[in-house]
Amino acid sequence: MNPISPELEEELESKEKEKIKEPEMYKVLLHNDHYTTMEFVVEVLVFVFNKAAEEAMRIMLNVHTKGIGICGVYTYEVAETKVNKVHSLAREYGFPLKCSMEKE
Length: 104
Fold this sequence. Notes:
Blueprint: H1 6-17, E1 25-31, H2 38-47, H3 53-66, E2 68-75, H4 76-92, E3 98-103
Antiparallel strand pairs: 1-2, 1-3
Helix pairs in contact: 2-3
């Protein structure tokens, strides 16, 4: 005789079939402009994205030379918060720095 009731067995089977869906991830991007200083971009990368100074410099140089740089990959809510923080800081300091996010 099976010690597990049929109802419990069916519930366990259905839970096995359910797969946990990973959240969609988004790249946060900084865009080059001719007004925002390189120093400010580095500070934003350190403060908002918790980058080490060396990595912040590398990303800033990508923004400067290639026109765009990837700051990180995050869930939608985290990416949106970081984009808003960058725009808020840029406005506060009088820079037109643009930050965006795109699905990875």
